[in-house]
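Hey, weird one. I pasted the Serine/threonine protein kinase sequence into the form twice and got a warning about non-standard characters only the second time. First submission, copied straight from the form history:
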Amino acid sequence: MSAEHSHADAPIFQDWEHVRGNATVLGGRFELRRALGDGSYAAVYEAYDRQLQRRVAVKLFNRCAPNEMASALREARLTASLRHENVLTVHDIGEHGGWPFLALELAQTDLRRWLDDAPRASADICAHFLAAGRGLAAAHRAGLVHHDFKPANVLIRPDGTVAVGDFGLARHLETVELSQERRAQLAAPNSLVRSRVGVDRREAPRFAFGTMRYIAPERLHGAAGDSRSDQFSFCVALWEALAGEHPFSGADADARYASIEAGPRGRPDAPSAVLSVLRRGLAVEPRDRFLTMERLLAALQAPPQRSRVFGQFVRHGLSTAATAGALAAAFVLAFGLSREAPALDMQASSRAALEAHALVEQAQRFAVDSEPNRAAELFEFAMLRAAKATYEEQRSLATDLEALGDHLDQGAAWAESARVFAAALALAEESRASEVTQVRLARKLSTAQARTRRQDR
């Protein structure tokens, strides 16, 4: 918990009836000094640990419903078992007046304040987020999901090291039955989104908890979420920090979901390889994100290798016959075109680019003739050649691919058009095409992906 969140004049416990008078010591050990923050189900205080003579933060779950307490304590014990440099240390767990509390490491500030205090270099921003990501990954390995990752929950110690706090503390609120009184409390507007889900009247309604600004789309629709939900929140926060604006909008769950489907806004100050990683982490469907947080972090830290940009668009499941046929087509088309187009300057345009152009041109014919599968096969082999092209040639190929995607889209081959638009966007980003081109391709990609999802339902 952050000391900079303090409100010096805030009274301890304020109007809560379960502690009165001079009862300011929790567990016979933690002497409450001042309020640091107040949430929808807990309050945080700076306290003095009489036993070890140090300042700590105490989080008191003073607004839990009775059937939430056991779950809160269970999650707190799991969190306390974590030992990692980038996870906030839990010193003790206890109860006071029937309410569970945690004694936590007291940090200097948090990532939200650090970002707001002064302009930060992109490299420094990424370094802080990578450290926070390692904390998330450690929790995931231990079976914990944060469910409310955001810069305000990333603490910065006096020595500058980064630690993620509040692991698992929102998780227990997702599926518990809520009392009528508790539901009334949750109806009040604040910074948390509470999306009522479930249509089976035989079951108690559920609420999806999390900060609207960073919550994953599946949780907006009431799914419990998993570590990939944390990935999404992580990428939203990093995109926001690098771009200086939030990637999504929407004041309620439905509007927010629609904005996520439309794709992120803004242009982060980061290399194209980082943008590609973030776009994948911001995928609407969890299955389209990284398998684990470790893989996302590895991709963020990987040295730029142009061939990697295109590898994700090449399927490995083509049959032997299809592969042979496509390779043969590539050979005939490439050499045939090079002989029939003497106006092309071979010194300015590499053989790889010529082959890729020829393959895409033939793929466009297949798309127009309503043969999207054959078009997709040639597209994949075109991408193998595109990896060897120069940046200028890649910008030209991106234009050809956009045309191919448009043909596929017009033929309602939306899954295929989505893959083509994704490749075109990757080429445009890698070759530093204009921002107008990149935004247009990103919109077409988002539209094709949305149509594919509706088609699959």
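That's the output from the first submission. The warning seems to come from a hidden character in my clipboard, not from the data itself. The chain has a mean pLDDT of 76.
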